[in-house]
Design brief:
- About 40% of the residues lie in helices and about 20% in strands.
- The protein has a six-stranded mixed β-sheet, with helices on both faces.
- Helix 8 links the parallel strand 5 and strand 6.
- The protein is elongated, with a radius of gyration of 34 Å.
Length: about 350
């Protein structure tokens, strides 16, 4: 349909031909000066404005016939957000006042209060393992209480937290959490007590293989997203980059937040003081694989700003939307404006063409 825009040069040529033909049909008067003195002549440029508006309206209609698409920002639909929070003991570091965990809890609770009603939230915590602290809910009091219940533990299983958050967001997805998070047969024994080899007999309690589903385009899932906050490096559990690939295959975006400073340390914990540092490369990799964003927060105020920015992303989203109706409506506005200006500027009649001779 875009080929129909070639009609525009023909329309312009026809307009110029009509102007030339009109000049040739002008009647010669012997008293031209008298006529010019007694006529209300419009400005020379006025007569071209209504035709130009009509031509623009035709161009918009021809372009709209091709059903163009545009990426526009629109209010987000009903969606689910899963917050995966690191509760490893490195969150005791005091490089962020009063401590990383207190600052993270405070910022997360303020973030929940700013979310609109159409966003449901679930909370997952992870340290040496991962657990669902609060199932998906719209009750902000329950969510705030769940954040207050955080208990710090040893280890940092970033991949486990991400997989559990993904399973919470998309429970219909074929994710074998037991196999991914817990090694139920660490020594590879079969039901007869011997170590199994490739192709050997399987254990009697072995589960059938999870049927794989065709991967979805990264970032294509519009029903929700994951926000993962961590302040350290993975020490146990599955590789978070492999978990991120699983999220990308399900079309889920994972926004990652690295919280803390390079000089963060835990003073005098169990008789030891040790440093803790954010694994920015892994968090950036997770965000990149899932076509999301990585944010660095080195203070409580930084984290608050990160959550504020994320809240706008979850309430408004960019979509590829057909704009045919918009262009057609704009064309009608131009048509109406052209008719209105023609009526105002070019009302023909004896009372309007000549000045009063009295």
């Amino acid at each position: 349909m875009l080929w129909s825009l070639l009609l525009l040069p023909l329309i312009l040529a026809g307009y110029l031909w009509l102007l030339r033909r009109k000049r040739q049909q002008v009647v010669t008067f012997s008293a031209v000066s008298w006529i010019l003195q007694n006529m209300d002549l419009p400005s020379p440029w006025r007569r071209h404005i209504p035709p130009a508006l009509m031509g623009l309206a035709v161009a918009l209609l021809l372009f709209a016939s091709a059903r163009p698409m545009a990426r526009v920002t629109l209010p987000a639909d009903y969606m689910t957000l899963i917050m995966a929070m690191d509760v490893s003991r490195s969150m005791l570091a005091e490089d962020v006042e009063p401590s990383r965990i207190r600052a993270a809890q405070k910022a997360a609770k303020e973030f929940l209060q700013d979310l609109p009603k159409n966003v449901r939230v679930g909370i997952v915590s992870f340290a040496g393992n991962a657990q669902v602290v609060q199932h998906v809910s719209q009750d902000k009091d329950e969510l705030v209480a769940a954040i207050d219940r955080f208990q710090l533990q040893r280890g940092t299983a970033t991949g486990s937290g991400l997989l559990l958050a993904l399973s919470t967001l998309r429970p219909e997805a074929p994710i074998d959490l037991e196999a991914a998070l817990y090694n139920t047969n660490p020594f590879g024994y079969n039901d007869q007590g011997r170590q199994s080899k490739a192709g050997g007999p399987k254990s009697l309690d072995a589960k059938p293989a999870v049927q794989e589903r065709p991967p979805e385009p990264p970032g294509s899932y519009k029903g929700g997203a994951i926000v993962l906050l961590s302040d350290g490096r993975r020490t146990t559990g599955p590789d978070p980059l492999i978990a991120a690939k699983k999220a990308a295959d399900l079309g889920v975006r994972v926004y990652t937040v690295g919280f803390g400073t390079p000089n963060g340390f835990i003073p005098g914990f169990e008789g030891y003081s040790f440093f803790t540092q954010v694994d920015e490369e892994a968090l950036k990799g997770i965000a990149k694989i899932t076509e999301a964003d990585y944010f660095k927060a080195g203070s409580a105020e930084d984290l608050k700003q990160v959550y504020k920015h994320l809240s706008t992303q979850f309430t408004m989203e960019k979509r590829d939307t057909e704009i045919t109706a918009l262009l057609s409506g704009l064309a009608l506005v131009f048509v109406f404006l052209a008719l209105l200006l023609s009526a105002l500027w070019f009302r023909m009649g004896p009372q309007n063409s000549f000045k009063s001779l009295s």
